[in-house]
Each structure stands twice: as C-alpha cells, then as structure tokens.
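Late entry, evening session. Most of the bench is empty. Finally got around to the prediction I had been postponing all week. Sequence below, unchanged from the version circulated by S.P.
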Amino acid sequence: MTISPQTPAGRLASPRTHEWLPLTVIPGGTAARLRESDLGNSDRDLLTALGLTPDCRLTVCKTGSPCIVEVRGVRVGLSQAIAERLLVEPVDESAPDPADRG
C-alpha cells in the first residue's frame, strides 16, 4: 500500500496491477495484503494505529457493513465507506508472510 506523505491530500495513484481490488469485493476467509488507500490523513493515521499499515497481511472475516478484518491477531471493524477505499491484493494463505521473518 502506498501510504506516503508525498501524495497530496492522501490521494494515491491508480493501482499498478490488475490484481489490486477494493476490500469490499474480497470474500470472507480470504487473506490479502494491503496495497493502497484513497483516504485522508486522519483516517489513514487511525488505520495505521489499528495495525493496518502499508503491505500488512490481513484476513477478511466478514464482508458488508461493518467489514471485519483480522490484522496482527486483532479483529477490526471498518465502515463500508472506508473499506471500499482500501485496495488489497489477495495472497496465498499457505505462503509464508515475509513480515514473520526474524
């Protein structure tokens, strides 16, 4: 996810790959990696505080409103308005998470 201060007003470029999808279209039980957002600074800061950081791995627990995701062992409820502005890339759940390397 490109959450960088270089982008004006939290607006980010279009997805660089066709595999990035809005979180709202990912079915429950799917693992994904957070790639990009289209959020203002305050929303982005709040999600970061909740553990939704650039390239973090998450699992969709429930779609709809709220959209519930598990990230870093914690479940977080997101409004549909926020979830549809998060772009994720589905990942193979059996693949090791590079973030787990010590």
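Two things to note before I forget:
Helices lie at 41-49, 80-83.
The beta strands are 21-22, 31-37, 57-62, 67-71, 74-78, 86-90.
Will write this up properly tomorrow.
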